[in-house]
Amino acid sequence: MKQYYVYIIKCKDNSFYVGITNNLERRTYEHNKGLNQDCYTFNRKPVELKWFETFIDPNQAIKIEKQLKGWSRRKKIALIEKDWDKLIEFSKNYTEFGNQIE
Which of 2, 9, 55, 78 fits a 20 to 30 Å CA distance from 67? Predict the structure, then answer.
């Protein structure tokens, strides 16, 4: 059974990149080697894998990847740190709570 991984890597400039792959070790290596000049991480090496989740269904993995790409930085940090209270807090309506915590 094939597995798919949705992952978050932290770049040298402290930005995050969210991606999907079927080989997490190879993909992390590729990001650090800078094999693709058009890749977001090309000028942000080295990168460090901070979080991943495994999926069997590629459609579910794609759905989660797109969802995470839309998340704020603080929400990604809460996920990486497994801070479920903050993740819930940061999931509340942005217009109601605004950018109170960074």
Answer: 2
Instruction: Give the domain ranges of the chain.
Output: 1-70, 71-102
Residue by residue, pLDDT tens for the chain (102 residues) are 899 999 999 999 999 999 999 999 999 999 999 988 999 999 999 999 999 999 999 999 999 999 999 999 999 999 999 999 999 888 876 556 555 554
How distant, in Å, are the alpha carbons of 65, 76, 101 from that of 91? Answer: 16, 11, 12
Does the domain at residues 1-70 carry the CATH identifier 3.40.1440.10? yes
Instruction: Tell me the pTM.
Output: 0.87
